[in-house]
């Protein structure tokens, strides 16, 4: 195999020793729906829960995990609808009923045997408002509390850490007392971290490091969103970062703080889902996707990835090779088991295709190394599943060009849906084992209306219907070889007669006839039966 220097997979291997990363392999299907572009930093009101809700019991206020707690509704995170979570006294919650893998999951200043929850390969789906070694604060009444409020469909689950402090280790305590909350919003999937004003510690001002943010299935591209802040910066100046920052800088994302840079009252970090259901179906054409606006490791809203051979290697967005900068879609081979070939799908978002129109797919493709040819087929169908992809429109089993090639209409079959509906185009990597990288970029789907439908020529007349699809009106252009009556019969897809008309005398040569009363027909497919001069022709048309 060549050196895989240009793909994040190898970069990740390099980080393993430095950061003790564990988890998924080079690529996996993405469901983590929170991104830097959809995170905001602002102030709101911090309202202590008081006695509202239920206190969460832990064995102590230092290093302890709670039993499973009920959210009060189903909260979807990383593709799973969760109804429970467990709380760690060290400033994070883990979704689901399974407790964290340890009671000590934080960045430790003096114990290299302790792993923080973000790097822990045994802990997924983490929500961490202030992950550091925490203990009871200087104010009395350290408590953890849960309250779910509101009406069904718009409830809010609030989880509160009250009167806690960063525990002294190599460095002394900087925040003698602080309180903060996580708020989960049922209706929107929004997550908020809200902080009360902190109280400074009495020791010298030094820099300490907390981790704040969200983790999905892995400490890797497309599965991480964190808050970052320099030691002297205020919390209002905090920004957001993902795993690409870790990969670039070779150190952890962190909120660096000291006794002079405390959280201000009402400081709020909001994480909004990047994709919504409403944005998942494309109805405007041309549809284009160059992947350039996406974060590495993510995928376009509405698209899906299927790891059909379950080897955890599949399609993902990379910034290491591309046609248009800075990103492209890549399938990277299984370098952990070189006996496993590719069987991995990337599905476009749903495309609202219409009968009576044709659609042309164009894209660019390349191999990561010409000595290791790749294989790709492209299909379309009515579902984003392997079985639902029923029609092949492109096949190339020997892709060796390292420079991106552009498909043409000559090698990509036109899509002509017979019925209006939602369709998906699937890019199916089928490369042999132990190859390298298959790249796709600049996907485009254009739409063309079929302006007229002409029947086969016969010895008596020719006929052409327009417009197709039709709306308020439908006309027939005819060219007859002899004069005579014309009878039109319109039948629906079930063969039922819905309209019928007769023209007493149709002249010899060219003429145009309006098909009567078509505007009121329901949308769908119809068949025009045309009888003239002893001959019959049938034309298929579509009404929108």
Architecture blueprint of SSEs:
Elements: H1 8-19, E1 34-43, E2 54-55, E3 69-77, E4 80-88, E5 92-95, E6 126-131, E7 134-136, E8 143-149, E9 156-166, E10 175-185, E11 191-195, E12 199-200, E13 208-215, E14 224-228, E15 239-241, H2 243-249, E16 255-257, E17 267-273, E18 281-282, E19 287-289, E20 304-307, E21 315-318, E22 328-332, E23 344-347, E24 350-353, E25 357-367, E26 374-381, E27 389-399, E28 405-406, E29 421-429, E30 437-449, E31 453-454, E32 461-466, E33 475-480, E34 484-492, E35 497-506, E36 509-514, E37 524-532, E38 535-543
Parallel strand pairs: 18-24
Antiparallel strand pairs: 1-17, 2-8, 3-4, 4-5, 5-6, 6-13, 7-9, 8-9, 9-10, 10-11, 10-12, 11-17, 13-14, 13-16, 14-15, 19-30, 20-23, 21-22, 22-30, 23-29, 24-29, 25-28, 25-30, 26-27, 26-29, 31-32, 32-33, 33-36, 34-35, 34-37, 37-38
Describe it for me?
The chain has three domains: 34-273, no CATH class; 278-449, Sandwich (Jelly Rolls); 453-543, Immunoglobulin-like (Sandwich), CATH 2.60.40.3080. The longest helix is centred in the N-terminal third of the chain and has 12 residues, at 8-19. The strands form six sheets. Strands 1, 2, 7, 8, 9, 10, 11, 12 and 17 form a nine-stranded antiparallel sheet that branches. Helices cover 3% and strands 44% of the residues. It has 544 residues and is mostly beta strands.
